[in-house]
Amino acid sequence: PFEPHIREGNLYGRGSCDTKAGGIAMMMAMKDLKVAGIKPNSTIQYAGVVDEENGFGGALALANESSVTAVVVAEPTDLSVVRSHKGLARFRIRAKGIAAHSSKPYLGVNAILQMTKIIKAIEEQILPTYNHQGHPLVGSPTLNIGLISGGTQINFVPDQCTIELDRRTIPGEKPSDAILPFQRLIEQMANEDRQFEATVEAIILDNAMETEEHEEIVQISHRACQNILGQSTITGVPYGTDASKFTIRGIPSIVLGPGSIDQAHSAVEWVECQQVIQAVDIYRQIMLNF
After folding, report:
1. Domain 87-206 belongs to what architecture?
2. Do the Cβ atoms of 19 and 11 come closer than 8 Å?
3. CATH topology classification for 5-85+209-289
4. Among 53, 86, 177, 263, whose CB has the most other CB atoms within 10 angstroms?
């Protein structure tokens, strides 16, 4: 996967889809305009930012310092115009117990067993509430418990157990508010059981993104896709991107790039070469018409 190659019209290699293809297409569109001696009405800037997968440091710094009027993020969308996506609240819940020898478990409090009660309560009391929330483009909130750890060795009653959760938020939700039901649940369980103790700690909070359909960057991008592809889709996606760092500051933003998000982070990552070429033409038209 670390040696790029083209086979049957697809470019294979890590990062080919997410997001080297979109970045290269943007740079090629700018180069084409430069070579042709065409000066767009607006100043066009390309930014290749870092840390998108972790703390968003690059995009946050750029958004704080930038005075741009619109943003196009080149994440893979199969060349659909994405004007809305989910945000996230990543957090951990840590159950605390009392250690004891496994031959006398009644002398301790098993933190893993306490955590099973928390998970069951989440399933029964919190998850069903998401069915009553929804967004026309991105759907309902979701929750994934992705990591669990606990105990030190098999013959000890574990005195701690931790889970890490990924809660996807929808436009209109504050990521910090998404954690509140879990905090209230822990407080309720502690009130009902004097041996119960647990804490909730935020890890990463990131806003959802939404740009109104009437915004100029949405409509110009929509028309550019229609011109190059013969059709265009304005939609939303369940994942997050750097675009939210700009919309939260009032800067209209979209996500538009070649490739499918289904190929991102995969062992066999690839992007259609034809989509990359089409993306160059789409980006060029956006640059000329904005």
Report:
1. 2-Layer Sandwich (3.30)
2. no
3. Aminopeptidase (3.40.630)
4. 86
User: What is the bridge-based pairing of β-strands 270-272 and 10-12?
Assistant: antiparallel
* Residue limits of CATH 3.30.70.360 in the chain: 87-206
DSSP state of 129: G
SS3 content of the chain, % helix, strand, coil (to 5): 40, 25, 40
Q: At what angle do helices 21-36 and 273-289 cross, to 10 degrees?
A: 50
- SS3 assignment, position 42: coil
First to last CA, the chain: 37
The C-alpha atoms of residue 136 and residue 263 are separated, in whole angstroms, by: 25
Asked whether the predicted pLDDT for residue 1 surpasses 90, the reply is no
Give the three-state DSSP class for 183.
Answer: helix
- pLDDT beyond 80 at 24: yes
Mention every residue, 6+ apart, whose C-beta is less than 8 A from residue 89: 167, 169, 175, 176, 178, 179, 202, 204, 205, 206
